[in-house]
TrEMBL record:
Binding of Zn(2+), residues: D32, D255, H259, D297, H298, H388
Assigned keywords, A-Z: Magnesium, Metal-binding, Phosphoprotein, Zinc
Highest taxon in the source lineage: Bacteria
Any one GO molecular function term: alkaline phosphatase activity
Cofactor(s), names only, from the UniProt record: Zn(2+); Mg(2+)
Pfam families noted in UniProt: Alk_phosphatase
Residues the record lists as binding Mg(2+): D32, H124, T126, E250
Sequence similarity: Belongs to the alkaline phosphatase family.
Gene3D superfamilies: 1.10.60.40, Alkaline Phosphatase, subunit A
Protein name: Alkaline phosphatase
InterPro entries recorded: Alkaline_phosphatase (IPR001952), Alkaline_phosphatase_core_sf (IPR017850)
Co-factor note (free text): Binds 2 Zn(2+) ions.
Active site residues according to the UniProt entry: S73 (phosphoserine intermediate)
Lineage: Bacteria, Thermotogati, Thermotogota, Thermotogae, Thermotogales
Length: 437
């Protein structure tokens, strides 16, 4: 009798465990252009360990695309969200143009709620890799249509309403489509303000808070939300039904500040991203059935944490008052006296006549990044490029299954592990065991 009962209980346990395994929530956070040095720069300037760095399991991944060691965000997002390499500039399609199903689309079909929260346009490369399928990442007209028509993503937070509205309504759509109206008809609540975001109560919400990208966090107006606020709200909406969910969060602008070689911008954008990681981690700790994964899609800028001399002038760097974009919105290089004094006031740097003359000769379109590289190097941060690099990136994991995110991997391994751990695929992967078998 006891034996039958034990058998019955163990069957119940197996059923219970498989239901739990099937319902694992995923919060997948991507710092665009963020690798080890971007994180460590922010950590050094903050004078503290970032939340991201406290996650218990870490791996390292390569990021190369199908056709280059140096990926752009489109194939990087595709690799991270589908497990396949594709061509630079391609989103959610194989090199031959055939669509690849993303893990978010697989999860949606498996009964998951899907969300994304970003500080760029929701049709930009990384978020578009969640739901989109185009050969050219610039085709944001098509990506917005795919987002609206597919209904893959239940909670969409970010910028870029211009791609959802026809030109007659102040948007950039030349096909006359009003995708915001279409999504409302499909049951989405539409919000475009912080108050609207906070009070949104539907299961499906489209939140677009800017015509294009959100402003950089260093100069973002109070009318636009922070990434941690969007993450908090997305988690509230996605988790309320009790169904499993998969949320993608991107710190979109770490990359752009790194493209500009702006150490201050990288610092602040990385901290904003890390604040969203904190929200995710706190949710996962309370929930107990949520896997948090944090990674970068590639490194940007070839950032080095010294220009030599065995030092970084941390105290000087910490006193900086803003990005060089913010600086140049207030100071004109042709007004030498004010410009030189401005650099002293904003960055604590005394600029020589020769240095001023070199900067003055830079074209106005390049001045922002040349000035940013100049200021970076004065405080001890070096850069090798205005573009991306092939440097590997870290992966951090917390929660059920986090122990599999260890060692040297490829970016395509992450979604494969997620599919396995959520029970959404039967892909085999090595069993981690203390016995080593
Ligand atoms: Zn990127």
């Amino acid at each position: 009798m006891f034996g039958v009962r034990a058998k019955f209980l163990s069957i119940l346990l197996v059923i219970f465990l498989s239901v739990v395994a099937l319902s694992l929530n995923i919060i997948y956070l991507v710092g665009d252009g963020m690798s080890f040095n971007q994180l460590l720069l922010a950590s050094i300037l903050e004078g503290r360990v970032l939340t991201t760095m406290t996650l218990p399991y870490t791996a390292i991944t390569t990021t190369y695309s199908y056709d280059s060691w140096v990926t752009d965000s489109a194939p990087a997002g595709t690799a991270l969200f589908s497990g396949f390499k594709t061509l630079n500039r391609a989103i959610g399609v194989f090199p031959n143009g055939e669509p690849i199903t993303s893990i978010f689309e697989i999860a949606k079909n498996g009964g998951y709620k899907i969300g994304l929260a970003v500080t760029c346009r929701v049709t930009h490369a990384t978020p578009a890799s969640v739901y989109g399928h185009v050969s050219n990442r610039d085709d944001e007209l098509t990506l917005a249509k795919q987002l609206a028509e597919s209904g893959t993503v239940d909670v969409v937070f970010g910028g870029g309403w211009q791609w959802f509205l026809p030109t007659a309504n102040g948007g950039r759509r030349t096909d006359g489509m009003n995708l915001i109206e279409l999504m409302k008809q499909k049951g989405y609540e539409y919000v475009n303000s912080i108050d609207g975001l906070k009070s949104a109560s539907s299961d499906k919400v489209l939140g677009l808070f800017a015509a294009s990208h959100l402003e950089p966090v260093s100069s973002r107006p109070s009318s636009q939300p922070t990434l941690d606020l969007m993450t908090t709200k997305a988690l509230e909406i996605l988790s309320k039904s009790g169904e499993p969910f998969m949320l993608m969060v991107e710190g979109s602008q770490i990359d752009w500040e790194a493209h500009s070689n702006d150490f201050y911008g990288v610092w602040k954008e990385t901290v904003e991203f890390d604040n969203a990681v904190k929200v995710a981690l706190e949710f996962a700790k309370k929930d107990g059935n949520t896997l948090v994964i944090v990674t970068g899609d590639h490194e940007t800028g070839g950032l080095s944490l010294s220009k030599g001399g065995y030092s970084i002038n941390v105290e000087l760097a910490r006193k900086a008052k803003g990005t060089t974009q913010m600086f140049l919105s207030q100071y004109n290089i042709s007004d030498k006296e004010k410009f030189v004094q401005g650099i002293k006031d904003w960055y604590g740097i005394s600029i020589s006549d020769a240095e001023y003359e070199t900067l003055r000769k830079v074209s106005s379109s390049n001045l922002r990044r040349e000035l940013a590289r100049f200021v970076s190097e004065k405080v001890g941060f070096g850069w090798t490029t205005w573009d991306h690099t092939a440097a590997p990136v870290p992966v951090y994991a917390f929660g059920p299954g986090a122990q599999y995110f260890v060692g040297f991997m490829d970016n395509t391994d992450i979604p494969k592990l997620i599919l396995k751990l959520t029970g959404l695929s039967t892909i085999k992967f090595p069993v981690v065991s203390a016995a080593g078998n």
